[in-house]
Write a structure and sequence with these properties.
The protein has about 525 residues and is mainly β. The protein folds into two domains: about 130 residues, no CATH class; about 300 residues, Pectate Lyase C-like, CATH 2.160.20. The protein is about 5% helix and about 35% strand. The chain is built from four helices and 46 strands. A 16-stranded mixed beta sheet has the order 1-2-3-4-7-10-13-16-19-22-25-28-31-35-39-42, sandwiched between helices. Strands 5-8-11-14-17-20-23-26-29-32-36-40-43-44 form a 14-stranded parallel beta sheet, with no helix packed on it. Strands 6-9-12-15-18-21-24-27-30-33-37-41 form a twelve-stranded parallel beta sheet. A hairpin with a 5-residue loop joins strand 45 and strand 46. The radius of gyration is 25 Å and the shape is globular.
Length: about 525
Amino acid sequence: MNTFMFTPSCKSSLMVLAVTVGLLTGCSATQEKGADKSRPVAVSQVDSQEIRVSNPRELTRAINRLRRGGTIIMEAGDYADLNLSLAREYPAEKPLVIKAGKGGTVFITGNTSINISGENITLSGLVFERGTRSGGQAELIYMGGEHNRITQSHFNNVDDLAGVWVQMNGRYNRIDHSWFEGKTSGHSYINMDIPENQPLYHRLDNNFFTRQPLGRNGGSASRVGHGSMYLNNARITFEYNLFDDESGESEIISSKSSENIFRYNTFKNSHGTLSLRQGERALVYDNYFIGTGEDGHGGLFVRGEGHVVFNNYFHNLNPQPRYKEEGAVSFGAATGNFDTQRSAKGLNGRHFPITRNILFANNTIVEPGDFAIVIGAQYGTRDRTLIPDTLYMVNNQMTGARRQSVLQLEGARDMVWQANISSNAVRGIDSEGVDTVDLTLADSAFGLPLPTGQQPGLGGADLSAYLQKLKLDMKWKENQTIVERIRNQPATAGFTVPLNPEGQPVYPLSKNDVGPSWMKQG
């Protein structure tokens, strides 16, 4: 439900305020051709906390009037060359809300620059398109401050300039129920930079992302941190998002920071992977990775330490790696030589970090392409010579691989394989850890195949022993929640349909489940 849908006021008294404006930059949303732009314009005010506006100048004046919070309703039309600096700190009980009177009728065009550095500020129902940013690589929106929000908005082929569309800094900010498409230039849709010793706690939820191939690095939907920030705890949550043909580059999301959460998302028909590129202790659970079998449709690529990858579903993928073999799930080889010059700059001394100490449990992989799992992916290229070690592979199901379920390169050590099920024999792995079972598939409640029946596995008490090795911060509520859930896991193998906090099943998302409510089909 859209919290910020406009409801006309029942108040009968209207006050018309006459304000004098200078020459406008761009056109008024309602101004007739040839009209005198220097004449007074009317701003209608329903009460002291709600103002209607119809052009950029009126919007700026309304923001200046609402110093104690309130709602600005933007009338339909183009708002060209909008330049806003929103630095005021509003109280949580009386935020500043800037929204379209009707979602999808307000178009932010031209040379736009919006800087949000205050608190409790919301933009809602806007369409960003036909842009001409003059800032080169500057962002369209800088989102700093705290408890700020972009919701119910559509970013549509804004411009062809380099630079991100949203730079999401600050803390406790949110982007939700929005739609991102059509970026043809370099850099991601949304970037985040992570400071030391201050998690951001951002939330990105119920959004839609799609992107055509960029042809080079820099085409992800989101970059979460930078190489110099990989040990900084970000604690950013991606949930209930649909990435559909999000194919800008090999990384759909590039996570380069620690303690991020990826849950209840659907990655569909995308030429790339959810990439834990650098960083530690990510939580990846209850996601769907779905392809059509087309070349390049990927799943999950894992590097770093201390991650939990639990109860994810992978179907009909077909990774086509640039470097060596990859699977629906790949655990990457690390850089062999430690680079002291990189380390002196604050970067990881291993450009491709060591992969170890990871719990990979209760995942189901169906028709993954050549391999369901590759341990040591990209080995031998760009000095990647260290094979992952100390992985806890428990309660997983794998079926339909063209070559074999697991490719584990020689050199992996201290590996734990327990209660895994494979439809074909896996060479080089203790047979007690991967049982060969002829799995029978049937359509699930969400219409995609799952193995029938229940295969036995390890229960929560046994899984807890591995959780304790990951060094999770148990003061953080999110870690408490997933640890408690895994501890209550029944002694069965494979994926089960997750339930949201309200106890409802979470199935793969469609376009009609995400994005602005005003874009949904009836």
